[in-house]
Amino acid sequence: MLGAMVFVTIAAMIRVPVEAPATLRKIMVPILGVMLGSGFHPGLFDHVNDWLLTFAVLPFFVGTAFAGAFAFYRFVGKYDMVTAYFASAPGGLNDMMILGGEAGGDERRIALAHASRIFIVVTGVVFFYAFVLDVRTTGSSRPYLGFSAVSLRDLGILLACAVVGATLAPRLRLPAPQILGPMILSALVHLTGFSQTPPPTPAVNAAQLVIGTVVGCRFAGAALREVVHDLALALGASTAMLSVALVSAFAIQALTNTEADAAFLAFSPGGLPEMSLLALSLDADVAYVATMHIIRITIVIAMAPIVFRLFGKR
């Protein structure tokens, strides 16, 4: 994921004609949802109190991170109020871009701000784990699972979770429907013991490659100077968000049995697919991290328009 993300971003910045593989993304994201759902197992219920406390802290994290990023974009970046507001949301790239454009903000700047946030958060978390927490991983800690190692029955179950979940979730208006729908069905399948098999490793690896490529392609068509300017501003805003995430993670560690590294991943405001893949690579609790990101995104998408309507004119 990181290799594709970095090199496609560089290609986009030097005006190589790259284009996001939209059709492939629609296929690969449900695979990630099924993979995330396979991380759920009955033993997770032993940690329900820890999860509930993280739920309680999430709204305070969202509000504080939102405010810190807004202050940076407004007073350092000199963005207008509407653009600064929707560029500062710690999640909901597509929703914030649409809502911000309809409210009179600069839709392109909002999109670049969120693309930059995801790029910087994902990259920053990796370096933080490597050089601060001294975590080293080659991804080999998880066993390789080829297609031949998965029975036709389990392949059929996982495929059904992906197809049915991705089809029904948009109709139910769930957030991040292409990943959340398959994740919910896969979680139910694995919690009930109907299947205990994750998706084959080659499928997950292909999904990582596509997700990284999509992140890089978000910078396509923007002038180099514009991308560098927005990345610099996003670096400041993302640092503010990650600082709040780090404080929240240490608070959760002090109050529960959750390790700070897993809590930090859960609070880091990157994209749901990207942060979930990092959790997979770093052997963190994928179910915990993915669930917290879904709740964070839901809070942002639900509350950002309401707060804007209440205080926007003022």
Automatic annotation (TrEMBL):
This is AbrB family transcriptional regulator. It comes from the Bacteria. GO terms for cellular component: membrane. Keywords: Membrane, Transmembrane, Transmembrane helix. The chain crosses the membrane at residues 51-73, 118-135, 155-172, 231-255, 286-311. InterPro entries: AbrB_dup (IPR017516), AbrB_fam (IPR007820). It holds the Pfam family AbrB. GO terms for biological process: regulation of gene expression.
